[in-house]
Design a protein that fits this description.
The complex is a heterotrimer of chains A (about 550), B (about 350) and C (about 325).
Chain A lengths: L1 H17 L11 E6 L14 H10 L4 E3 L5 E3 L19 E5 L14 H12 L14 E8 L2 E6 L16 H11 L18 E7 L3 E6 L12 E6 L3 H9 L5 E3 L6 H5 L4 E6 L4 E6 L13 H10 L2 H7 L29 H10 L12 E2 L2 E2 L1 E7 L2 H16 L3 E7 L1 H4 L16 E6 L34 H11 L4 H17 L3 E6 L2 E6 L2 E2 L16 E2 L2
Parallel strand pairs in A: 1-9, 15-16, 15-17
Antiparallel strand pairs in A: 2-3, 4-6, 5-6, 7-8, 8-9, 10-19, 11-19, 12-17, 12-18, 13-14, 20-21
Chain B lengths: L1 H28 L15 H10 L6 H10 L5 E2 L9 E2 L20 H36 L4 H14 L3 H18 L19 H35 L2 H8 L4 H28 L4 H6 L5 H10 L3 H29 L7
Antiparallel strand pairs in B: 1-2
Chain C lengths: L2 H4 L18 H11 L1 H23 L2 H5 L25 H37 L1 H15 L3 H12 L6 E3 L2 E3 L1 H12 L3 H14 L3 H8 L4 H12 L1 H24 L11 H8 L7 H29 L8
Antiparallel strand pairs in C: 1-2
Classes of the chains: A alpha+beta (about 550), B mainly alpha (about 350), C mainly alpha (about 325).
Chain lengths: ~550, ~350, ~325
């Protein structure tokens, strides 16, 4: 009978596929971290994905790292270069890094300055296609006078230098691959970094399920107290919460604020909010060629800020876990603590709009001027909370006679390039909402508001999608990038905070810090929003 | 027969070419692989321009299709961004078995897909086995007891199951059998994944993680299949030769299982044959909810990043499977039913 | 059985037209349909749902359905909000009414697209045969070779944001409604195409068609006026079931976050955000979910009844 045979065949396949060599637990002390997206690649060159960055940080070390106060501490370096210890030259164009003399890879090979030089070489090689070359492309030359010393030169003083050498690649493993394949792009190590320098060594990656690491017995610093670390991938939000609640996962992140109370209610999950550099904000289009004419008037932009009841959104929709940020760098020392966000003041908004000449002259409920109605395009991606905010704003603004057209795009269309007619890049919006962070967080350097970054057919790769240009702000941006003195640099950022607020070119919607949840059975958890697992070697669980 | 098979295979070639071209063009316009690169905000424009060149995404769509199809090792590419083509490309093209590298993981696209095939098959074949067994039980019972109370109840239930969105069933079963059962202190099923990494990929682990997703998938298709079996059985039972068999005094059970069932089952072969290749697509929604590392989830994850090589590879693999299984179904059918001849 | 019994009834060869009226096809169909109990239950439920979304929109305005008040977020059902409120404090009862309208519009119109395409392809293919037939059937096969949900997702992304908002009868619809209608229509015509083709293949050799052709009736006329009306039964059944399928499909696309965009709601898009609150706020997903399930079940029952009624010997493929 066909069916009998078919059924038997199926059962055989099922059973055979099910038993593929059991992999037993290696030790008794294990912690499971859950992410809702799978890492794409574990080579720092080939991923800009937040979660992948968290994972490779467990397996790799860099010259320095950031602690729970976001202050740098040396890891492979003997100390953080500074003007005082001679690591930074007075003109800010040379950095000398001295390495510890006991550092080694997980296979016992020593880590030397040659690995640093190799890392730089790989990032800038034309044979490789790393996702970003920044900041390695700023280096003009690199020397390794001896095994313990790395000297880096720049053309210009380069303040964000802490972004260099966050993770180092093993030359003795990867150089042969690079020479054999002509590129590192497809190296097996990228997804199976079996030789590393972190507190844990990569053990296996069960695609679609988890990555497992075991204690690095050759770790040059205090060895990890846990035996294994497991990173699980759980894409569905409901299943994600369930896994934390029933103890399948010990650590989670990126849980939406409204879901936090129910996790806290379990009694064994601790919730923390950590600055990640991200702030949700409105990017106001001020490009004369693409924006609604009203957007070019700074008073109209200010009126929109006054009209937008952000505190209510943060309180009601985000349950008061966050607040309207006053600075693009909210949550870092670069945000001016004395600056206040625009308050919610609909009368002020009405007055500003009236003064600017936007009044409802034809009685249709929407303000207008010179026959053009004040209907603005409000664009964002398809994230639920953003779509919720959109409908609230649409209703509130209608009361003030401001028409709002809602636009939503999937992220990879929303952020399409200028060349590909992306709605943001080509200015097909008046208000764009998303969350942004400095690329090199915790370093604050950005280029997004600079005049020479405005994309045009001749310069399609500009990052300034708002078409906004203020020479005073430009000068400050150039200045901060060459200011090596920390306090002086902070002062420049405080000036920029005021310009950005006064020009109402970016309006903070909520301080978009990361939520982290961890099971209280784990001890010594000291997270931060940039490198949360910086002290994972100190984590412990009761036997 | 041989000529028939040859003709069908020849016809499949233009068919697959058209499918691939249409899908390729659709995907080009469906998003930008460089828009996020998996980060939370768009990457630097300068890096995007370089990657577009290095990955060949700056070429016109038909050129990209051509390179996808036949490779670019015969053409000179610009490797350093000075606008002058300086060295030959490295891709061999689909026709020579190179589906390109994933834009997300950098692995060969086929490797990415093949990692997921066994997982999807475990889930989908289990579900399919459940479907066939339960559908046969329900379908035959209903047919033999037509219009009985139980038949009406089963019919009602199948319609309800058939009308239910699968995410409803899936989420509800997580809520009930994982969260609530655990809270009540009853034995509960895991919320997702394929096995507990702390325990390992044992049979018991996979089986326990398999229960909820497989049942969720099966529930809906049991309804679909059992309706089909029921009506086929009814048709056969009421046909002349069964009446003849009855008149000859053969035992009822013998009649049902040897004569009626065999003939009623025949169309089921077609149904299964046409459904089988689509098992490869996995159950997008179910795999997503239960974090099952199969092809459906692969597709969703890579759709969000517009990973064209992987999506094309996956869809083309299914298309080829569909064409192949259609042919197989036809051949099996002629073998089972000698009255049918293809020329 | 005696011979006297056999001849007991006088045989009346003359047909009395008053006592035995010839039953029209439609009347017989109706009678058979009415005998199908579940179909009648389905029909009444469906009428109830249509009444609900019709009368409901006379009671609640659309502005009320879209009115949000974040302070009333996630309120459980109460006298003021019988179905509770959603994540931005909108009244769910009113939203199920307006969302239902969109869901049903999507269901109906995407089936119109699918039926038009399927019938056109099937009719041309079946009637003309030859090269036309094999080309069209290859196309159909190509469409059938791609998993529908995957194709829908790619197409939803392809069209997203390309179609501006529409204003029909003074109401603003998100352009995404049109997108969803088109893509569901474009991906669900293939089975119908095959059914129509099969029906045309058999009917085109029938005597009345041969006669019409002999009389010099034009092809278009034959297809539209002679063959098509005789192929209506399977088309009607497939179309009815198609509405249920389209409503479900829309819910799936919305669930995966690629469906209709706000402020327009559908039952499916109401579920999109709601499923995160399966435990916390069950009223969010319960009411729209229930309405989807009820509607789809009723339509399926009606479709099943129609199939039995229109063609008692049809194979009952579900």
């Amino acid at each position: 009978m066909i069916f009998k045979r078919l059924t038997v065949l199926m059962l055989v396949v099922v059973v055979a596929a099910g038993i593929v060599g059991p992999v037993g637990a290696q030790g008794s002390k294990s912690v499971t971290i859950a992410f809702d997206q799978e890492a794409d690649n574990l080579n720092p060159m080939y991923t800009t994905m937040t979660f992948a960055g968290y994972v490779y940080a467990i397996f790799l070390s860099g010259a320095w790292n950031f602690d729970d106060e976001l202050l740098p501490h040396p890891v492979l370096a003997a100390e953080i270069p500074s003007l005082e210890n001679g690591g930074l030259s007075a003109d800010g164009r040379m950095i000398t890094i001295t390495l510890r003399d006991d550092i080694k890879w997980s296979d016992g090979e020593p880590i030397t300055s040659a690995d640093f030089a190799f890392t730089h070489e790989m990032f800038v090689s034309d044979a490789n296609s790393p996702l970003t070359r920044d900041p390695y492309n700023r280096i003009t030359s690199l020397e390794t006078p001896d095994e313990r010393t790395v000297v880096v030169h720049f053309d210009e003083p380069f303040a964000p230098w802490l972004g260099l050498f966050r993770y180092i690649l093993p030359e003795h493993i990867l150089r042969p691959v690079y020479e054999a394949d002509g590129s590192l792009d497809n190296a097996a190590w990228n997804r199976a970094p079996t030789v590393g320098s972190g507190p844990f060594v990569f053990a296996e990656w069960e695609v679609g399920s988890f990555i497992r690491g075991v204690r690095n017995e050759n770790y040059f610093d205090a060895p990890a107290l846990l035996d294994t670390i497991v990173i699980r991938f759980v894409p569905d939000p409901e299943a994600y919460l369930a896994a934390l609640k029933n103890g399948d996962s010990d650590v989670g992140t990126f849980v939406a604020f409204p879901d936090l109370p129910e996790l806290e209610a379990t009694g064994f999950l601790d919730v923390g909010i950590y600055a990640s550099g991200y702030n949700e904000g409105w990017f106001m289009n001020a490009n004369p060629e693409t924006a609604h004419p009203a957007m070019l008037d700074v008073n109209v932009r200010r009126a929109l800020a006054y009209a937008f009841n952000r505190a209510q959104i943060d309180n009601d929709l985000l349950l008061g876990y966050t607040y309207p940020p006053s600075s693009y760098w909210e949550g870092t020392p670069y945000a001016d603590p004395d600056l206040e966000p625009y308050p919610y003041d609909p009368e002020m908004a009405t007055q500003l709009l009236d003064e600017a000449g936007w009044v409802d002259s034809d009685g249709d409920g929407i303000r207008d001027k010179d026959g053009q109605p004040l209907t603005l395009r409000y664009a964002t991606n398809t994230r639920q909370i953003r779509m919720d905010v959109q409908v609230v704003v649409q209703q509130d603004f209608a009361d003030l006679g401001i028409g709002i057209e809602l636009l939503n795009y999937p992220s990879d269309i929303f952020w399409n390039t200028y060349a590909d007619n992306g709605p943001m890049a080509t200015g097909q919006y008046d208000i764009g909402q998303w969350s942004s962070s400095p690329d090199g967080f915790p370093d604050p350097d950005i280029v997004r508001f600079m005049c020479n970054e405005i994309p045009t057919p001749e310069n399609p790769i500009g990052d300034n999608w708002q078409g906004y240009c203020n020479p005073d702000l430009d000068a400050l941006f150039v200045e901060q990038a060459r200011t090596m003195d920390y306090d002086a640099r902070v002062a420049i950022f405080h000036q920029m905070d005021r310009v950005i607020k006064d020009d109402a070119i970016w309006i903070g919607v909520w301080y978009d810090a990361d939520s982290w949840i961890y099971n209280t059975r784990i001890q010594n958890v000291r997270l931060n929003g940039a490198s949360p697992f910086w002290n994972i070697n100190e984590w412990d669980v009761a036997g | 027969m041989g000529r028939y098979i040859a003709r069908r295979l020849l016809q499949a070639i233009p068919l697959l070419l058209i499918i691939s071209l249409v899908l390729f063009v659709l995907m080009q316009a469906a998003g930008d692989p460089l828009a996020t690169l998996g980060g939370r905000q768009p990457p630097r424009a300068e890096d995007r321009a370089r990657l577009a060149r290095q990955w060949g995404l700056d070429q016109p769509v038909l050129v990209q299709y051509l390179y996808w199809l036949v490779g670019n090792d015969w053409a000179m590419m610009d490797s350093d961004g000075d606008g002058i083509p300086d060295q030959p490309g490295t891709r061999k093209g689909v026709l020579r078995g190179d589906f390109g590298n994933s834009l997300v993981t950098r692995q060969p696209a086929m490797e990415v897909i093949m990692e997921r095939v066994p997982n999807t098959l475990v889930l989908m074949l289990t579900a399919q086995a459940l479907i066939i067994v339960f559908a046969l039980l329900v379908g035959i019972y209903s047919a033999l007891h037509q219009y009985s109370l139980m038949d009406n109840v089963l019919t009602g239930c199948s319609f309800a199951a058939f009308s239910m969105p699968i995410f409803f069933i899936a989420l509800f079963s997580i809520y009930l059998f994982s969260i609530r059962f655990k809270a009540w202190g009853l034995p509960s099923f895991p919320t997702g994944g394929m096995y507990d990494p702390a325990v390992g990929r044992t049979f018991a682990q996979v089986a326990s993680h398999l229960v909820l997703p497989a049942m969720s998938i099966a529930l809906i298709d049991i309804a679909r299949y059992s309706r089909y079996i029921r009506s086929n059985m009814l048709e056969v039972i009421n046909s002349d030769y069964i009446r003849t068999a009855r008149a000859k005094g053969l035992r009822e059970r013998y009649i049902l299982f040897i004569h009626a069932f065999k003939n009623a089952a025949l169309p089921l072969v077609t149904l299964i044959g046409l459904d089988l290749p689509f098992l490869l697509a996995g159950a997008v929604v179910t795999e997503r909810i239960f974090a099952w590392p199969g092809m459906g989830r692969l597709f969703l994850d890579h759709l969000n990043r517009t990973d064209i090589p992987v999506m094309m590879g996956l869809l083309m693999m299914i298309s080829v499977a569909v064409v192949f299984f259609q042919l197989m179904t036809d051949i099996v059918y002629t073998w089972l039913d000698p009255r049918i001849r293809y020329t | 059985m005696s011979s006297s019994e056999l001849s007991a009834q006088p045989v009346n060869l003359k047909l009395d037209e008053d006592t035995l009226p010839p039953q029209s096809l439609w009347r017989m169909t109706l009678r058979r349909f009415r005998r199908h109990r579940m179909a009648m239950v389905g029909l009444f439920t469906l009428m109830g749902i249509i009444l609900y979304i019709g009368v409901g929109s006379l009671i609640f305005t659309e502005a009320f359905a879209n009115h949000n008040d974040t302070r009333l977020r996630l309120q459980p059902p109460s006298a003021e909000h019988p179905f509770g409120t959603d994540t931005v404090g909108r009244d769910i009862l009113a939203r199920t009414i307006y969302g239902g309208q969109i869901s049903i519009i999507i269901g109906l119109f995407s089936v119109i697209v699918a039926v038009s395409m399927g019938t056109a392809v099937g009719a041309v293919s079946g009637y003309y045969g030859g090269k036309v037939d094999s080309t069209l059937m290859r196309l159909t096969e190509a469409m059938l070779s791609i998993p529908t949900l995957l194709l829908l997702l790619v197409m939803a992304k392809f069209f997203s944001g390309r179609i501006p908002d529409l204003v029909i009868f003074g109401r603003t619809f998100s352009g995404s409604v049109l997108v969803i209608i088109i893509i569901i229509g474009l991906t669900s015509w293939m089975y119908l195409g095959r059914i129509v083709r099969a029906s045309f293949l058999s009917l085109k050799e029938s005597e009345f068609v041969l006669a019409a052709r002999a009389l010099g009736v034009r092809d278009r006329q034959i297809i539209l006026a002679h063959i098509l009306p005789n192929s209506m039964a399977p088309i009607i059944v497939a179309a009815t079931l198609g509405v249920a399928g389209a409503i479900l499909t829309e819910a799936y696309i919305s669930f995966l976050g690629m469906g209709v965009r706000p402020p327009t709601a559908t039952w499916g898009s109401m579920l999109d955000g709601a499923y995160q609150y399966i435990e916390q706020a069950p009223w969010l997903w319960f009411f729209p979910g229930l309405l989807i399930i009820l509607t789809v079940i009723s339509i399926n029952f009606v479709g099943d009844g129609l199939r039995d009624a229109l063609d008692p010997r049809s194979d009952k493929k579900v």
